[in-house]
Amino acid sequence: GSADEAVTKLRELLGDLDLAVKTAVNDWHQQQALGLLIDALDAAGRKAECEAVWKELIQFNKDRLKYWEIALTTATEQFESWKS
Asked: Global pTM?
């Protein structure tokens, strides 16, 4: 198909994905569940387990941050290259 058809189809896909992200389980939900587990473990006095889950949550966030930092850098570089 044509480039215009591809644009139309990709815009439709992005619209569908936006809804899917809002209705699906994603990283935000996992982060929230880990936070709730920390609260529950703390309330139960299970300090060692609570500490381990805190470390898991911190690593989870570091991993996501690294991914998005790379994505941002790549997109910025590609945009600058495209403008040239």
From this structure: 0.77
